[in-house]
Amino acid sequence: MAPWPYPFWIAHRGAGKLAPENTLAAFRVGAAHGYRAFECDVKLSADGVPFLLHDATLQRTTRERGIASQRSWSELSRIDAGGWHGRTYAGETLPSFEAISAYCRRNGFALNAEIKPTPGDEVETGRVVAREAARLWAGAPVPPLLSSFRPDALAAAQSAEPSLPRALLLETWRSGWFDEAQALACVAVVADHAIVDTEAVARIHAAGMRLLTYTVNDPAPARRLVEWGIDGIITDAVDRFSAGELTVFD
Ligand code: G3P
Ligand code: MG
After folding, report:
1. Where are the alpha helices (DSSP H) in the chain?
2. How much is the average pLDDT of 165-176?
3. Which atom of ligand 1 is nearest to the CA of 149?
4. What is the CA radius of gyration of the chain?
5. pLDDT, the chain, mean
6. Half-sphere exposure of 113 (CA within 13 A, CB side)
7. Residue 218: per-residue pLDDT
């Protein structure tokens, strides 16, 4: 297998649940807990600017409603994406992918950018996120790992910027996943921890790929996954798992 430059522990959506997900504040909380690698969800504004948001709609993580991708970046960039979480984070904004890149590069943090297209925008999102990632991380020692549940988004990323590493996200071992991962020249598969077993680890490693897993927040499954030889864990529980080592604390 090719050398793997990414830290084992990856903070989910910045720092998962301790701060508003997919905001710069969440990244800072993860960093304060010692995390040096982060996962986030990236989609496009109406005018094609990549920014961080998990859902297609705004209501769960902002006080706005409606489909985020129908708004321009100038509108989106003024939305409060922190107040829903608690008063501490009121006024925290939706970050652009560019702002997150600047933060990660300045601090030497690794990024797993999940391409999370608004339905219908798969190809354009894959293409634009890959192009922007190549531009923003030009000359960086560790490129961002681009992942997606959507093979069409990964294929668009592959044709736009073939040299950027890709990973196929899987909730189930659905039919065709292995051939898709191979055709997309993925360096990794990122699977829901509920479906990971020793056979999966062995099969993926035998194919020269890494196996990462999400979203592991409890010590018992984390300990088992470490024993099985998993290559990385994406977690919300940055206050429970020490990012510096493979030991899993209760
Ligand atoms: O990338 C791993 C994980 O983030 C995938 O699920 O729904 O949290 O984006 P989700
Ligand atoms: Mg995600």
Report:
1. 24-32, 73-76, 97-107, 122-136, 151-160, 177-183, 198-206, 219-228
2. 98
3. 5
4. 17
5. 96
6. 34
7. 96
- Can you tell me the distance from the alpha carbon of 73 to that of 95, in angstroms, rounded to the nearest whole number? 10
250 has a pLDDT exceeding 60: no
CATH of domain 9-235: 3.20.20.190
Please give all residues whose beta carbon lies within 6 A of any atom in ligand 1, as ranges: 12, 39, 41, 54, 114, 147, 169, 190, 214-215, 234
Q: Where are the domains of the chain?
A: 9-235
* 64 CA from centroid of ligand 2 (Å): 21
Q: Tell me: the pLDDT tens digits for 184-215?
A: 999 999 999 999 999 999 999 999 999 999 99
33 in catalytic set: no
Is pLDDT above 80 for 248? no
Tokens of 215: 């979203």
User: DSSP string of 5-20?
Assistant: -S-SEEETTTTTTTS-
Query: What string of DSSP letters covers 27-53?
Result: HHHHHHTT--EEEEEEEE-TTS-EEE-
- Residue 239, classified by CB atoms within 10 Å of its CB into exposed (0-12), middle (13-18) or buried (19+), is middle
DSSP category for residue 136: H
pLDDT tens for each residue of 34-51: 999 999 999 999 999 999
The token pair that represents 247 in the structure block: 């030991």
Q: Which two tokens stand for residue 26?
A: 């969440």
